[in-house]
């Protein structure tokens, strides 16, 4: 028993040591990003490199804001991201409810076609979608970046459908016997049950919209409505060699994603685990 317990303890120590080492490796680029954003220019390319700046240049952030309309870019990105997350949650949850609970002709065929769109590369539809938005007069506006979210996402629909199908039908039937309509059953009975999946979708959607580069590159030309991803690229092209300012802008642009992930980390992990168990 003692030898078995000792081997188990050694295994736990090795397991945690591996996780710590892997975490440090994964965190090193973030630490280097923050460190470079606070370095003087003459310390950025030193060899051997220094991790702690001496002195710490906090004014790199104020200089970056004076060179770049950073908060305007952040505001545009936040606008697109919030609308995109709301659109994905509403449209995908309603479509998933229809596929999981309602009975209508051709449901399975249409659901298979929906899943088939996941395998379709975005490059295939890029030109047709651009032509549609051009006909609508939405080029050089932010509408192409968030309006499509209100028409659902195939992966999010699939994820929510799997959750809806695991909810006991008796719960829905009891609500209908009490006089609830289809929409009320969906809104007040089923949606609260699938909160982990909704949190997972919200995080995925937030990251996708916040980091979206190709969409703003294609549809946005005016500097006043650029998002942060295109703004950073514009800054890099305009101020080549200002690496400390570039890292300062990148640090602030990454901060909202980190805050959102750690705020909803529990719900995110629960949603992923429950999807694997119930799928």
In short:
This protein is mainly α.
Describe what you observe in this structure.
This protein has 279 residues and is mainly alpha-helical. The protein folds into two domains: 2-57; 67-278, MetI-like fold. The protein is 75% helix and 0% strand. It is built from 14 helices and no strands. It has helices at residues 2-37, 59-67, 70-101, 107-116, 122-136, 143-146, 154-166, 169-177, 182-193, 195-210, 214-219, 228-238, 243-263, 265-278. Helix 3 (70-101) packs across helix 7 (154-166), helix 3 (70-101) packs antiparallel against helix 10 (195-210) and helix 8 packs across helix 9 (182-193). The chain is flat and about 70 Å long. The two termini are 39 Å apart. 26% of the residues are buried.
List the helices and strands and how they pair.
Layout: H1 2-37, H2 59-67, H3 70-101, H4 107-116, H5 122-136, H6 143-146, H7 154-166, H8 169-177, H9 182-193, H10 195-210, H11 214-219, H12 228-238, H13 243-263, H14 265-278
Helix pairs in contact: 1-13, 2-13, 3-7, 3-10, 8-9, 10-14, 12-13
